[in-house]
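Run: sequence + pyridoxal-5'-phosphate -> complex structure.
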Amino acid sequence: MNIDSLIRPNIRKLKPYSPARSLYQSGTFFDANENAFGSTVGLPGYYELNRYPDPSSSELRGALARFVGMSAKNIFTGNGSDEVIDLLIRIFAGPGEKVAIVEPTYGMYRVAADTAGIEAISLPLDKEFQLNVVEVLKNVSSKVKIVFLCSPNNPTGNLLRTADIERMCEGFDGIVVVDEAYIEFASAPSLARKVSRSKNLVVMRTLSKAWGLAGIRIGYAVADEEIIKYLDKVKSPYNVNRISSALAVWALQNESDMETMRKSAINERVRLAKELNALGFTVFPSEANFLLVKYPGISKVAKSLAVQDGIIVRDFGNTPMLEDCIRITVGTREQNLLLFETLKKRL
Ligand SMILES: Cc1ncc(COP(=O)(O)O)c(C=O)c1O
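>> structure
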């Protein structure tokens, strides 16, 4: 597949901004109008907050590349994966073109498309929340430039079948984005390394979930080098800040901490599922750090949980295919017990 031919013509021709720190990385800097006298915030010297960050976040990309088992040339780092979604739409979908969203799924794909003025067509997952590849391929015209998939899917919790994603990549003449925000909690490995074979596959991942770093906004894309080059071309010059970069590198050097939390979340997921089951909930199988559960009239219960008990779950009662469903993030043992006891009273 020729990636260049999928890129919007204006982006192909775009002359990117040339940030000062991409021209010179060392020396006495008189080039970027930074504050030579220091910073008003006294964090340790190595943060150098008066200086712009490395525009290409090289150290972080290197650390992520090691974690994923790919080359740094296949990694793009963003201000959360939400930034990556936005940039992908801007690179591949122009006026009059579309993206496809296989729903129910994460809401930001549609918001990003709507914001960019790009029509987002909605295609349904099947009754098991799996991809019907034949149906999807039948319904994507040549105007559709990106298909967004999410695996494990938010809010349904299931993994999509790898064989189906591979068939999508082979059968679709556009970009297949697989959002793996929750992959660390799943029983299957990431598809990130498949980007070497499938040139139109973009795998999005994040440090917001298993790594417990939602607050520092680090998301990343793993993709063919050509796609990464275009992401770099359109991103804002210093999209990943110094503090987030440094903390992310630190976290990646301590993978065992993530492993511990990941295991705790999975154990709790299993226990919570059993408890909710005992209360009469239908619990959908989950490969993520949340459970989609169904119970007649649960929307009302969710409302009183929030108002009277300060226990907040996410109501999906108004989402097609998810009537009477709420999504519950797996908490600690103490939090889950509190949820269980309170639910028992409110049901
Ligand atoms: C499927 C999915 N993708 C992406 C994100 C956002 O990730 P980030 O925090 O990296 O922007 C979320 C957050 O809830 C999500 O559920």
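>> summary
The mean pLDDT is 97. The two ends are 54 Å apart (CA to CA).
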